[in-house]
Write a structure and sequence with these properties.
The structure holds two protein chains of two kinds. Chain A is mostly helical. Chain A has two domains: 58 residues, no CATH class; 169 residues, MetI-like fold (Orthogonal Bundle). The two termini of chain A are 18 Å apart. Chain B is flat. In chain B, strand 1 and strand 2 form a beta hairpin. Chain B has a single domain, classed as Orthogonal Bundle (MetI-like fold). Chain B is mainly alpha-helical. Chain B contains 13 helices and two strands; from the N terminus they run αββαααααααααααα. Helix content of chain B is 73%, strand content 1%. Classes of the chains: A mainly alpha, B mainly alpha. At the A-B interface, helix 1, helix 2, helix 5, helix 6 and helix 7 of A face helix 1, helix 3, helix 4, helix 5 and helix 7 of B.
C-alpha cells in the first residue's frame, strides 16, 4: 500500500528525526493497549500448565510458576470415563462448524451479489427485512425457533445444528457493504467477454470479496465453535454432543466447576481456544494481503 | 437471475430468522405462558410496559446511558486502533493481541476483569489506589450502585471492540492503492489529511457496518451486566432492557410481555439504524 508514513515525509536530512519520534510513542502506546487486551489469552495459555495449587491462588497470577502437563493427562482420563469417545465430539464440532462456515460464506456472498449488483425487483425491501432481523433480540425468537426445528423433525440431527445457523443477517450485511465498493467496470468487462453470472460470481466477485469473507470466516468460526446453546437445545443424545457441551459435562454442568476438574477445565479451555487462534491466523494472512487488482478506474 | 442468487439465503432466512421474528411480533399482543395457547389481549402489554412498569423505565434509562456512552467509544476506539495498527510493520502480532478478547471464552475474560475490579484490597485497581494513598478502604466496584454502570461500560467496551476492529482492518485492504497515489498527487501530505479526505469517504460501507454493529450490541447489553452485577442488580443499577426481557421470558414465563419488550427495543435500534444509515450513506452512485 502506498501509504504516507509518519507525520512528515521526505526531506531526509531534516525530518528524519521527526518521523522517528512519533513512531516510538505510537509503538509504546499500542504495546500498552495490546498488552492489556491480550491478558485473557495469556491467562488461558499459562493456566493450562498451572498445577492445582496455582490455579486456586488468590489473587490470581497471570504467569505460571511451575509448569506441568498434569492438566492435560487429567483431561484425557476424564474423557476416558465417558461413554462416547472424545474423537466423536471433536468430529461433531469440526463437521458442524466447517459446514456452517462454508455455507454461510457462499450463501451470504451470493445474496450480497444479488442485492448489490443484480438488483432484482424487491431488493431494497429484502435488505430492509435483513436489517430488521439483525436488530431483533435473539432471546425472544428462541422459542419460535425451537418450535420450527421440532416441526421439521430435525431434533437430534446435524440439520438442527447447521441449518438455523446459516442465514445470519449480519453476514449478508457485511458482504453487501464490501461489495458496494466494487467498481461495476470489473463486472461489465467480464459480461462483454460472455461470462455467465455464476462464473462471474466465482471468478471475480468472491476473489474481490476476500477481505470480507476472510473476516466472516473468523466471526462465524469463533461463534459456532464456542456455541453450546444450540446443541444443548436441539440434541439430547451423547453421540450428537459437540465439544463445548462435552467439556461442560466433565466439569459437572454449566457454571459448577468441580474442584477436582479445575485443572482439566483449564487444559480444555486452551484446547478449545487453539483452533480459533489457528483459523484467525490463517485468515488474517488473507485479509491483510493488499488487493491485487488494478488498472480499473471507477 | 438475481433471485437465483438470493434464493439459498432467503429460504433459510425465512424459515429460521424471519418466521420466529414475526411470531414474536404476534405474541407481543397476547398473554402467553408457554403452556396454554396464547390469548389475544391487544395493546395491554405495551400499556403496562410504558405506564406501570417502573422497573422497565429504569432499565430503559440505564440502557440509554450505557448505549450512548459505550457505543460511540467502542466504535471510534476500534476504528482508531485499526487505523494505527494497519500501518505497523508488526501489525499481525498487534492485531492478534488486540483481537484476543474476541477469541477467548467468557470464563477467561471474567477472570481478568474480576482481578481488575475485585471489591477487596487485592483487586488491581483498589490495590493501586490504596498504594497511591488516594483511598483508604477498597471501593466496592460491583456492589455500589454508583460504580456498577461505569464498570460494566469499561468491560463491555473492552470485550466488544473486536468485531468492528477486524471489519475496519479488512476495509483498509479494500481501498485501491491508486486512490492513495492520486491523493498524493493532489497534495495530501500527512496521515491526518489522508484519513479525512481518502480513508473516511472510502470506508463508509464498513463504517456503517461497524456503527450498526456497535449500536445493536450496546442496546442489547445483558451478559456482561449480569455477570458483573448479578440479577437483579443492587437497586436495579445494572438492569437493562434485555435483562428485563430475560427476566419475563425465562424466569416468569410471560412470553407475550417479553415479546412486547423486544418490540420496543427493536423500534429504538431501528430508528437509530436509520439515522446511522443517513450519516454513512455511500453517495458514489
Amino acid at each position: 500500500m502506498a501509504a504516507v508514513k509518519g507525520f512528515s515525509v521526505r526531506f531526509r536530512g531534516r525530518r528524519l528525526f521527526s518521523i522517528y519520534l512519533p513512531n516510538v510513542f505510537l509503538y509504546a502506546f499500542l504495546t500498552l493497549v495490546v498488552a492489556f487486551t491480550a491478558l485473557p489469552l495469556i491467562y488461558v495459555i499459562s493456566s493450562a500448565f498451572k498445577p492445582l495449587d496455582e490455579l486456586f491462588l488468590y489473587p490470581p497470577k497471570f504467569f505460571v510458576r511451575r509448569p506441568t502437563f498434569e492438566n492435560f493427562s487429567d483431561l484425557f482420563s476424564a474423557f476416558n470415563n465417558t461413554d462416547v469417545p472424545l474423537t466423536r465430539n471433536i468430529f461433531n464440532s469440526l463437521f458442524v462448524t466447517i459446514v456452517i462456515v462454508v455455507l454461510t460464506v457462499v450463501f451470504s456472498g451470493m445474496a450480497a451479489y444479488g442485492l448489490v449488483k443484480l438488483k432484482p425487483k424487491g431488493s431494497s425491501f429484502i435488505f430492509t427485512l435483513i436489517l430488521t432481523a439483525l436488530m431483533f433480540s435473539s432471546h425472544v425468537t428462541q422459542i419460535p425457533n425451537y418450535v420450527i426445528v421440532k416441526n421439521l423433525n430435525m431434533i437430534n440431527t446435524y440439520w438442527a445444528l447447521i441449518l438455523p445457523k446459516i442465514a445470519v443477517a449480519y453476514n449478508v450485511f457485511l458482504m453487501k457493504q464490501f461489495l458496494e465498493q466494487m467498481p461495476d467496470a470489473l463486472l461489465e468487462a467480464a459480461r462483454l467477454d460472455g461470462a455467465d453470472e455464476w462464473h462471474i460470481f466465482c471468478k471475480i466477485v468472491m476473489p474481490y470479496l476476500r477481505p470480507a469473507w476472510g473476516t466472516l470466516v473468523v466471526f462465524s468460526f469463533v461463534s459456532n465453535w464456542n456455541d453450546y446453546f444450540s446443541p444443548l437445545v436441539f440434541t439430547n443424545s451423547e453421540v450428537m454432543k459437540t465439544l463445548p457441551l462435552a467439556v461442560q459435562s466433565i466439569a459437572g454442568g454449566p457454571g459448577a466447576a468441580a474442584l477436582s476438574t479445575m485443572g482439566a477445565m483449564a487444559a480444555s479451555t486452551l484446547l478449545m481456544t487453539m483452533p480459533t487462534i489457528l483459523v484467525y491466523t490463517l485468515m488474517q494472512g488473507r485479509v491483510l494481503k493488499t488487493m491485487g487488482y488494478s488498472g480499473i478506474k471507477s | 437471475m438475481g433471485y437465483l442468487f438470493l434464493a439459498p439465503f432467503l429460504i433459510a432466512f425465512f424459515l429460521f430468522v424471519l418466521l420466529p421474528v414475526l411470531a414474536s411480533m404476534a405474541l407481543s399482543f397476547t398473554n402467553y405462558d408457554m403452556i396454554n395457547t396464547p390469548k389475544f389481549i391487544g395493546m395491554t402489554n405495551y400499556r403496562l410496559l410504558l405506564m406501570d412498569d417502573d422497573v422497565f423505565l429504569l432499565a430503559l434509562k440505564n440502557t440509554m446511558i450505557f448505549a450512548f456512552i459505550s457505543g460511540p467509544i467502542g466504535f471510534f476506539g476500534s476504528f482508531i486502533m485499526a487505523w494505527l495498527i494497519n500501518d505497523l510493520k508488526a501489525r499481525n502480532v498487534f492485531a492478534l493481541a488486540f483481537y484476543a478478547p474476541s477469541l477467548t471464552s467468557g470464563v477467561a475474560l471474567s477472570v481478568v476483569w474480576l482481578y481488575f475490579f475485585s471489591s477487596d484490597r487485592y483487586g488491581l485497581i483498589n490495590n493501586i489506589l490504596i498504594r497511591l494513598g488516594l483511598i483508604s478502604d477498597p471501593i466496592q466496584w460491583t456492589l455500589n450502585s454508583d460504580t456498577i454502570l461505569p464498570v460494566i461500560m469499561i468491560i463491555s467496551i473492552w470485550m466488544s471492540m473486536g468485531a468492528g476492529f477486524l471489519t475496519f482492518l479488512a476495509g483498509f485492504q479494500n481501498i485501491p492503492s491508486e486512490i492513495y497515489e492520486a491523493g498524493m498527487i493532489d497534495g495530501i501530505r500527512n496521515r491526518c489529511q489522508q484519513l479525512v479526505y481518502i480513508i473516511l469517504p472510502q470506508m463508509k460501507p464498513q463504517l456503517l457496518f461497524g456503527a450498526i454493529n456497535a449500536a445493536v450490541g450496546a442496546f442489547g447489553v445483558f451478559d456482561v451486566a449480569v455477570s458483573v452485577a448479578g440479577m437483579p442488580s443492587p437497586n436495579y443499577a445494572a438492569h437493562t432492557i434485555v435483562a428485563h426481557l430475560y427476566d419475563y421470558a425465562f424466569l416468569r414465563f410471560e412470553m407475550g410481555y417479553a415479546s412486547a419488550i423486544s418490540i420496543i427495543l427493536f423500534l429504538i435500534t431501528f430508528v437509530l439504524g436509520r439515522v446511522l444509515m443517513r450519516i454513512f450513506r455511500s453517495d458514489d452512485t
